[in-house]
């Protein structure tokens, strides 16, 4: 396919729809140099964005964590997202909202005088992990660790938090893996590069406590689904040596949806009944 800068369509940018290839920013935008950018990844199913308002609210929260304010309300962002879908004639699509500090009077670390911009794009995007969504993904272990909440705003969906995700995913793909699993700064199991992780043992579910990484909206949705089924969910510290004791494993995320994991380095997992049930039920839920 063409590069993402060469697609056709429309992008909502600072209050108006512009041709896709004209949606550009200045090279001296603060975000490019200092990562002062936040974003949301969302999926529309049958013309409706799943958890749309929650995503818009989190975008505002993330901006606040990076000490800037988005100049559009949640309601205005909601309207803009629908305008983008309609303008591009899309019903099943990925939606990317991004807010950033642009070019202005400041070009050092400080940027209080620079304007804040917002753009929203949408495009057709299939399974994030390809065939792994059905066969089970294979994960590497990342060499980097998720940082301490004392060092960075870990609960923001901020561009800077994804630097180690990119390098870790590249390393994993070079080994023939779909993704990489992070430990956190304490050595506890944390998450994948863009998805939360769940494990099954003896009919109960275990998932890392999100105290050093993003508590994903899909993660929260899946926990709710499990509790509705009277499945016991343990949100807790998980040690790396526990991986060999788990029977099933899956990833959750807006892009990943619910993707089974078949292998993490030398540990193998069954794509079992609970994993299949949650994946299928999530698909029905988002399309309801």
Describe this protein with a few key phrases:
288 residues, alpha+beta, D-amino Acid Aminotransferase, Chain A, domain 1, D-amino Acid Aminotransferase, Chain A, domain 2, 30% strand, globular
Order of helices and strands: EEHEEHHEEHEHEEEEHEEEEH
Q: Could you say how many structural domains there are in total?
A: 2
Percentage of residues in helical conformation: 25-40%
CATH topology name of the largest domain, in short, is D-amino Acid Aminotransferase, Chain A, domain 2
- Averaging pLDDT over every residue, what do you get? 97
Q: Report the strand count.
A: 15
CATH class of the largest domain: Alpha Beta
The separation of the N and C termini measures: 31 Å
CATH superfamily of the largest domain: D-amino Acid Aminotransferase, subunit A, domain 2
Radius of gyration: 19 Å
Give your account of this protein's structure.
The protein is α+β, with helices and mostly antiparallel strands and 288 residues long. The chain has seven helices and 15 strands. The chain has two domains: 120 residues, D-amino Acid Aminotransferase, Chain A, domain 1, CATH 3.30.470.10; 155 residues, D-amino Acid Aminotransferase, subunit A, domain 2 (D-amino Acid Aminotransferase, Chain A, domain 2, Alpha-Beta Barrel). A hairpin with a 2-residue loop joins strand 1 and strand 2. Helix 2 crosses helix 3. The model has no long low-confidence stretch (mean pLDDT 97).
